[in-house]
């Protein structure tokens, strides 16, 4: 990103070019993944859709696409993760290993949660190889991916992490668990945090639909696993057990590397590996010969498209409603005598747009996907939005913010409406929002 903005203070706004370039890269990687799973140089369109669409058209990935500045590295991270999981053992070994290390090192540099996608797709590809009874290729490819993963991790640690990773956010959220903090209870807490995010998607009519398709993929994987176990060799038994356990492994990999962090952040954008879960559920249809029945697999994808459409509408309406509210509040502050350099303290939440509230009622997952309120207590984003509209104030420390509460008295009220109350004492302004 420093290269893209020529090392100036502010990154240039190139959206939606970032999303377009990132989706082109992701589409290209989807072709390689489909070739790897089907072993066809020119896969049929249905297989391409079943393997490719879930990489981007899945609810938890929508937030990644909505960012102006981070969308490109996030999409490139997902693309590189897919490419790293699409390597085949056949061919020049050193070349394949070098490519794997390059792609995984790129994932670590672009967006680390996409490692979850890589690990999950490795499991999906392994199950696909077991379905073909090609256990030799399955184990060799898995070992190649493991070696590339270890080498890339070591290189990233010594080249990048030690010299370029800095900042208060990274310092607080990139700390790995050690023997003192690693415990069964802490891991269970992390798993419950990831499960809560997943449950926001599994509601009402969506739950039986999505669970039924995942159960179908699970039955398919267990059947192929049992077929491998019946061969009664050490490699076939190990492969069969891994294939049979794959449904559980994939669910654990939704949280993935965050399980190893002391302060994990469970946000929708981090669930990149949900794409692998959808592709896993599609495996029975990918290898099915009846093209009419294969079309049934598009039902979850159709549902995800509906969520995407509703997300786009809600996001646009949220932005319009929010900007209108910010503009109105700026005018009120200016009328009350607010000048640059005055102190503004914000309490409460801004009101939610009715259209957004209705969308969340229909699709509860949107409550997790949509950005939080721009005006929310002493949040920096609210101050930035007000600053853009002419009400220039600084962010305050928690102590200053709590001290200013003493000024919230009726004698200091300048303006009172059902949506907000404005208080003023000298050059100090307090704004309390009455939103939900």
Task: Write up what this structure looks like.
There is one protein chain. The protein has 436 residues and is mainly alpha-helical. The chain has two domains: 17-288, no CATH class; 337-433, no CATH class. Helices cover 61% and strands 5% of the residues. It is built from 18 helices and four strands. It has helices spanning 17-38, 45-52, 62-66, 71-85, 93-110, 114-131, 135-164, 168-173, 184-199, 206-229, 234-252, 274-286, 291-294, 298-335, 354-362, 366-369, 380-388, 398-403, and strands at 343-347, 413-416, 420-425, 428-433. The protein has a four-stranded mixed sheet with strand order 1-4-3-2, with no helix packed on it. A hairpin with a 3-residue loop joins strand 2 and strand 3 (420-425). Helix 1 (17-38) packs across helix 2, helix 2 (45-52) runs antiparallel to helix 12 (274-286) and helix 6 runs parallel beside helix 12 (274-286). The protein starts with 16 loop residues before the first helix and ends with a strand. The mean pLDDT is 90.
Fill in the keyword field for this structure.
436 residues; mainly alpha; 2 domains; four-stranded mixed β-sheet; 18 helices; 4 strands; 61% helix; elongated; transmembrane; Glucos_trans_II; transmembrane helix; Glycosyltransferase RgtA/B/C/D-like domain-containing protein
The CA-CA distance between the termini, in Å, is 37 Å
Low-confidence stretches: none
What portion of residues belong to β-strands? under 5%
Mean pLDDT reading: 90
| Rg, alpha carbons | 25 Å
Domain module tally = 2
Number of helices: 18
Q: What is the chain-wise order of helices and strands?
A: HHHHHHHHHHHHHHEHHHHEEE
The amount of helix comes to: 55-70%
Main-sheet strand order equals 1-4-3-2
The general outline is elongated
Tell me the number of strands: 4
- Structural class by helix and strand composition: mainly alpha
InterPro entries: Glucos_trans_II
Protein name: Glycosyltransferase RgtA/B/C/D-like domain-containing protein
Keywords: Membrane, Transmembrane, Transmembrane helix
Transmembrane segments: 14-34, 46-65, 101-127, 139-160, 204-222, 234-259, 271-288, 295-312
């Amino acid at each position: 990103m420093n290269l893209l903005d020529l090392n100036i203070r502010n990154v240039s706004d190139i959206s939606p070019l970032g999303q377009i370039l990132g989706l082109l890269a992701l589409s290209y990687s989807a072709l390689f993944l489909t070739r790897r799973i089907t072993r066809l140089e020119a896969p049929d369109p249905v297989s391409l859709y079943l393997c490719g669409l879930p990489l981007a058209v899945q609810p938890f990935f929508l937030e990644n696409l909505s960012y102006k500045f981070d969308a490109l590295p996030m999409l490139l991270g997902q693309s590189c993760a897919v490419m790293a999981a699409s390597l085949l053992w056949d061919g020049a070994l050193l070349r394949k290993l070098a490519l794997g290390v390059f792609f995984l090192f790129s994932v670590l540099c672009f967006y680390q949660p996409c490692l979850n996608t890589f690990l999950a797709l490795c499991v999906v590809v392994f199950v696909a190889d077991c379905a073909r009874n090609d256990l030799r290729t399955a184990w060799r490819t898995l070992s190649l991916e493991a070696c590339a993963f270890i080498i890339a991790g070591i290189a990233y640690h010594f080249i990048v992490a030690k010299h370029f990773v800095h900042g208060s956010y990274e310092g607080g959220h990139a700390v790995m668990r050690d023997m003192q903090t690693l415990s069964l209870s802490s891991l269970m807490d992390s798993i419950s945090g990831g499960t809560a995010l997943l449950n926001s998607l599994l509601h009402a009519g969506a739950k039986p639909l999505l669970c039924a398709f995942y159960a179908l993929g699970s039955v398919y994987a267990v059947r192929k696993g049992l077929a491998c176990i019946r061969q009664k060799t050490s490699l076939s038994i190990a492969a069969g057990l891994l294939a049979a356990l794959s449904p559980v492994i994939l669910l654990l990999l939704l949280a993935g590397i965050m399980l190893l962090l002391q302060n994990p952040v469970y946000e929708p954008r981090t669930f990149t590996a949900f794409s692998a879960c959808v592709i896993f559920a599609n495996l029975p249809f990918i290898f099915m010969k009846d093209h009419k029945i294969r079309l049934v697999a598009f039902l979850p994808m159709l549902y995800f498209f509906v969520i995407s459409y509703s997300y786009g509408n809600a996001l646009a309406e949220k932005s319009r409603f929010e900007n209108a509210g910010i503009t109105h509040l700026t005018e009120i502050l200016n009328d009350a005598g607010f000048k640059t350099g005055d102190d503004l303290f914000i309490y409460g939440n801004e009101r939610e747009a009715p259209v957004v509230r209705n969308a969340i009622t229909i699709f509860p997952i949107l409550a997790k996907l949509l950005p939080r309120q721009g005006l929310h207590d002493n949040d920096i984003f609210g101050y930035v939005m007000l600053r853009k509209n002419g009400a220039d104030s600084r962010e305050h420390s928690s102590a200053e913010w709590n001290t200013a509460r003493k000024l919230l008295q009726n004698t200091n009220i300048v303006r009172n409406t059902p949506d907000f109350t404005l208080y003023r004492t000298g050059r100090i302004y307090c704004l309390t929002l009455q939103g939900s």
